[in-house]
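Re: the pair you flagged

First of the two:
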Amino acid sequence: MNVTELHKLFLQFPEISTDTRKITPNCIFFALKGSNFNGNKFAEEALKEGASYAIVDEVDYQTSEKTILVDNVLETLQELATFHRNYSKTRVISLTGSNGKTTTKELINLVLSKKYKTIATKGNLNNHIGVPLTLLSIKEDTELAIVEMGANHQGEIAFLSGLAQPDFGYITNFGKAHLEGFGGVEGVIKGKSELFTYLIENDKRIFLNADDAIQKEKLATYIKKFGFSQTDSVYYQIELLSASPFVQIKFEDLVVNTNLIGAYNFHNCCAAILMGKYFNVPPNEIKVALEFYNPDNNRSQLMKKNGHEIILDAYNANPTSMMAALENLSLIESSQKTLFLGDMFELGETANEEHQSIADYAQKLGFKDVYLVGENFFKVNTTFQKFKSFEKLKSYLVDTNLPKSTMLIKGSRGMALERILELL
């Protein structure tokens, strides 16, 4: 079955599943493979659970007319997604970057949905499987699709851009994330810039943070760009009024009071404002959308528990986002501050250096009650308390009555530091 025939089938049954635990009636099941599983083995089960067809790539599992044999299930899923993206005529906005992708995507979607029929990447399903699934969620009436693209090595953004074929693009920033896969900061810049390369080569529109020196330099001679700035009057003006603790913004004589913690979220809001402006969303509707947004999923959530005011930012961490979180906490007025900082992953040979830098920076900012958690932080030279594992920290907290404080909890996803909440 070629992609045109498969797409006709997809139009009849426009729901996709890759997990037999999440089968919806009449969906098409794609039997993907991983290092520890073979989806072909579950094709028959998917059909019994209500799938209309199952796409397999091993002949032994082509057991009925409802199992369709292809050369490679993943490549077929990707090819179908790009075919559907072009069939739909929906305009696609792609974004990538080291930090803030998911929050920015959510903000952009809220703003643009004030005027348009939109779809956006669910959660952070932003890889070689997630991007195709997002494209396949485009409906007949979808006008704009916001597609988040993640990467941990060079060439990945170029590949995802080829799948999504965006009409517009935005890069949040270039930070110290996935240094191991990218081969250092210069590798990060090169890898993330693959989105710019695609857009420039195809004469597409680029949204620009003109206060980011790297972005500004890379796009200095490119004509089809639309940017925001606090300082350069050539670009659309957006002003940060405050971030203590919530981000307050001014644009076009409107003041926006967000529910987002930290100045590092300012540019995420700016991207949404800029795109709202470009797509002619009324300014007051942009304001309403931004003020409606509440962060979740452990991303810069502000909560209170047993007398503690907690900034829970335990979804992920890298040196750039960690330093931004420390800077933000230093600006918040509080007589007592407590920090729980967990290991940052995927830093490769720079891991020791980067963890030491974070500990040194926390000390430089004057923090005293700092708890460092994880094997990397355990190696740093510091006067702060260190715990080689979460279990070691847990044993300590069970017997310790922490003073009421403003608390930051931040670490990479694998550290799962949100578990601290259960111990307070």
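Second of the two:
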Amino acid sequence: MTIQELHQHFLDFKLVSTDTRKISKNSIFFALKGDNFNGNTYAKEALSKGAILAIVDEKEYANSKDVILVNNVLTTLQQLANYHRNYCSAKIISITGSNGKTTTKELIHAVLSTKYKTIATKGNLNNHIGVPLTLLSIKEDTEIAVVEMGANHKKEIAFLCSIAEPDFGYITNFGKAHLEGFGSLEGVIEGKSELYDFLTTNKKQIFLNADDPIQKEKLGNYIQKFGFSTTLSDYYKLNLLEANPFVSIQVEDTRIDSQLIGKYNFTNCCAAIIMGKYFSVLLPNIKEAIENYVPENNRSQIIEKEGCKIILDAYNANPTSMKAALENFNQIKEDNKILFLGDMFELGSSAYKEHQNIADLAEELIFKKVYLIGENFSKTKTKLSTFNSFDTLKVYLEENAVPKNTSILIKGSRGMALERILDLIQ
């Protein structure tokens, strides 16, 4: 079966499934493989639960007319997504960067949805499987699709661009994330800039933060760009009014008061604003979209509990985002501030140095109490309280309650699951 023929089947119901636990009736089931599972073995189950076709790549499972044998299921999924992307008329905006991708994507989606039929990546499904699934969620009446792209090594963004073929792109920033895969900050810059490479080669539109020297230098004299700046007159002027703790922005004669904390969210809001302006969204609608956006899923959430004001930023962490979070928390005008910081993952040989840097910064700034959690933080040379695991922290807090009427920042990599600390504040 050709990709074109498979696409004709897809158009009947426009549904795909990759997990029999969440199968959609009348969907096409793609029997993907993982480190601990073989989707081929679930093809029969998928059909019994309502799938109209199952795509497999092992001959022994192609035992009925509803099972299609291909050379590689994942490649077929990616090819179908690319075919569908070109079949539809939607414009594709791709977002990548070291920090803030998901928040920026959601803000852009909120702004553009006020005028256009817009879809966006769900959650953080931003890899070689998630991007194809996002593209396959595009409907015939979709006008704009905001596609988040993640990467932890070079050539990955380039590959995702070959599938999505974006018309527009924006890089949030270049930071010390996934150093284990990229090797260095220079490797991060090279890897993330693969989005620029695709867009410039194909003469597509780029959005940029012109105050970021790396972005400004990388794009040089490239003409098809539209950016924002707090100082440069050649770009759309946006100003940060305050971030104590919520970000407020001056846009022309309008003040936008977001529900996002930290100066680091200023540029995320700015990206959504300039895309709104580029796509002719009215400023009152941009303002309303940004002011109504409330972060969730452990991303800079504000939670009130037992008299404490808690900033829960436990979705992910790397040295760049951790430093920004600490500096922002330090500037918040509160007397009693407590830090819970969890290990940062995927740093490779840089792990000890980067954790020591964060421990030194936390010790240098003025906080009432700092708790460092995880194997890496427990190896640092510091006067701060260290715990080699969440369980040891739990035992400590059960005997030493967190004081009431304090401000608390909780930040760490996803694998640390530091949102569990909420249950210990009582």
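The CA atoms of residues 26 and 51 lie 5 Å apart.

-B.
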